[in-house]
Amino acid sequence: MPFWDKHIETLPRNELEDLQVKRLKDTVARCRKTVFYRNRLKSVDESQFSTPEDVSVIPFTTKDDLRANYDFGLVTVPREEIVRMHSSSGTTGKATVIFHTIKDIETWADLVARCIVMAGANRADVFQNIISYGMFTGGLGLHYGAERVGMLTIPSGVGNTKRQIQLMHDFNTTVFHATPSYILYVSEVMVREGFDPKEFDLRIGFVGAEPHSEQTRQRIEDILDINAFNSYGMSELNGPGVAFECEQKSGMHIWEDSYLLEVVNPDTCEVLAPGEEGELVVTTLNREAMPILRYRTGDLARIVDDGEECSCGRTHVRISRIKGRCDDMLIVKGVNMYPSQIEDVLMSFPEVATSYQIIMDRAGKKALDSLTVQVELYPKMFDGDLKKLRTLETDITRSVQDEIVVRPKIEFLEPGSLPRSEGKAVRVVDKRGEM
Ligand code: AMP
Ligand code: ZN
Fold this sequence. Notes:
With 435 residues, the protein is an alpha/beta fold. The protein has 2 domains: 1-326, Rossmann fold; 330-430, ANL, C-terminal domain (GMP Synthetase, Chain A, domain 3, 2-Layer Sandwich). Helix content is 29%, strand content 23%. It is built from 11 helices and 20 strands. It has helices spanning 6-9, 13-31, 35-40, 63-68, 102-118, 137-149, 161-170, 180-192, 214-224, 339-346, 386-404, and strands at 82-87, 97-101, 126-129, 152-154, 175-178, 204-208, 227-232, 243-245, 252-254, 259-264, 278-284, 295-301, 318-319, 324-325, 330-332, 335-337, 352-363, 368-377, 409-413, 428-430. The chain has an 8-stranded mixed beta sheet with strand order 4-3-5-6-7-8-9-13, sandwiched between helices. Helix 5 packs across helix 6 (137-149), helix 8 (180-192) runs parallel beside helix 9 (214-224) and helix 10 (339-346) runs antiparallel to helix 11 (386-404). Bound molecules: adenosine monophosphate (AMP) and zinc ion (ZN).
């Protein structure tokens, strides 16, 4: 099985942890160059650190801290050494900006190259990067990694779906990167344009940047006849290349020589044991321009704790699929749920096409919450057989209720009815605050 950097990817745990401690000390020292961290770290003595767990004496860094230090407040190098700025794609509040030195860009490209090779791609592949370029990190992040691996890289970005398909066809694209929702849309357009989605040379897909269920991954794999690998990252931690699936597809290896991971209870901030689900908290271990300590990512997942090292030979721990962001949690009729739970149920029905939307409303005299799930079905379901549709409605309603407790109202739509997004899909509409 190929590796990009076999030495570091298979480093024995004790050596990996020693490296983490060394890099953690260096990172804390570097952070002290900023006023913010100098104040925050007054009571921290990193010279006493002897295990990675010692990180827990450091206070957390939050998105609000990044905002408060807008613009250059957390930069630890002279301005002339900064070569790149990125930003998170959040739509609320002031943007959080991240800066990189040339060495940071190289380290990042190297981490992404590890992911690409881990998924089985190589320099003989043609790579189409079907994701937004610009301040969003998905485009340039994979782009630099792919060139480092030596793949022919097509920076096609998002949009102009017919042209994407034309490029795939004309240049025999074998590997792509896209959000799961956009690649599913591309597959729909392929069918509409008279192509069989399986007829292309595609063999590997990197899908990420938004929560998606295992069922959705399998959909993508079946429709396009490829292997799809989950890719996790965020601008605050460079972007893609933080954690990625290997060929085993049993969790995403997080590159622990560069990222020190903790999982905490999002309410109490208590550090949780492997296997317990909580918020990912990450410290960068190898960043020059803008190191971040104990960053509260807002993302919910757990460390895969099956008691064994991954059979791929990599020693870096694996994290589960991301359930969603802590703030993605929906509360309907007092019950907590995540959109990904509903998605998982929907995608297990072969009649259900690739898009859906969850609508929460509050109506009626008692002003009770209602939960409607609009579901696109494949065209063959609209052949006039109402009994078939009613049976499906009953089955989906029951399965969703089994999963989330609340009974949803299911509405069927023809394919293509719901709005499509080229980036991260909008799955939830909450009308409860509206008049
Ligand atoms: P951005 O910084 O704009 O790239 O957004 C990063 C956020 O996207 C993360 O904090 C996650 O909430 C989400 N995200 C990225 N990759 C994944 C993934 N593979 N699965 C689920 N959510 C993801
Ligand atoms: Zn593995």
